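User: Earlier you gave me the apo prediction for this protein. Now I'd like the version with flavin mononucleotide bound, so I can compare the two side by side. Same sequence as before, with the ligand SMILES added.
Assistant: Got it. Here's the input I'm using:
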Amino acid sequence: MDLSDIAALYRHRQSCRAFDEREVPEALIKSICELALLAPSACNAQPWKLIALFGETRARAVKCVQELGMNRFASDAGALVAVCSAGGNFTAKLGSRLKDTDFTANDLGILTAHLVLAADAAGLGSCILGWRNEKKLRALLGLDEKTRIPVVVALGYAREDCPIRPKKRKPYDETYRALH
Ligand SMILES: Cc1cc2nc3c(=O)[nH]c(=O)nc-3n(C[C@H](O)[C@H](O)[C@H](O)COP(=O)(O)O)c2cc1C
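And here is the structure of the complex with flavin mononucleotide:
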């Protein structure tokens, strides 16, 4: 594997908003989650838990990401994965306080990035969903009110008539600079 393989993966991953009816094997979702959980985290605190949702729970969770008519396509996603905060460790919490930075939020973002890239490599489409009713999701998943669920990831097989879109990104001269 070299950079061009990784570059192809990064360019291929896109938010999928059209899933087909093929069933997503639970074992595949588990493998993707296990890979994502190799992500780095502040002080290696791993302040997270991934909860994969299938069947009836998936159907109920879908409603939590569709308020005001948003994310209708999520109904067709074979699986949802809730990205949740959990645990953490003393050094990371102390570091967050001393450095005035929410490292858990950062760690969950990195975890999510790993998840969607692993999904793409496994042949699945994905869409990160930040539009969610966190309170209802917490209740559905039996989580306490301290648990954050910043995003839910919809996963499934992309419809074959959905091409890879050109990336819409700011010009790199606005988003990257080098200082010497
Ligand atoms: C934190 C976060 C929340 C998002 N929430 C939603 C969402 O609720 N619904 C949706 O359709 N897309 C959502 N997206 C997907 C973004 O719109 C998408 O990543 C962005 O437009 C870039 O497109 P691409 O993923 O196809 O490269 C979210 C992405 C992130 C990172």
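For your comparison, keep in mind: Residues 14-15, 17, 71, 127-131, 151, 167 surround flavin mononucleotide (CB under 6 Å).
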